[in-house]
Amino acid sequence: DRAAAGKAEIHVERIEAPILFVSGNDDQMWPAAEMTTALERRRAQPSRLGDQHLNFADAGHIIRPPFTPTTITWTEGMYSGGTPEGNAKASVEAWANILRFLDEHLNLRV
Question: What does pTM read for this prediction?
């Protein structure tokens, strides 16, 4: 439904801050890696802004902070994809990169 997709579109080209995209290459809910690539293309100068895309080969849709279980690859009847090992690796690596990205771009020093 192209009309519905157009209404739900995130206008990333208007964002004047760096974006950290995180996706699982085995996302079974929607094609997250491909959708992120499309968002990256719409950014005027992503390298100038500091955009980054973390894509994890064996991870599904659910990439959470690393203190949550990764053995469950479904939620409320929806299969998210990935393997328990791939989801665990993605959770640990994504969390570390999210903290580094925020530290680098927010400049919050206490």
Answer: 0.83
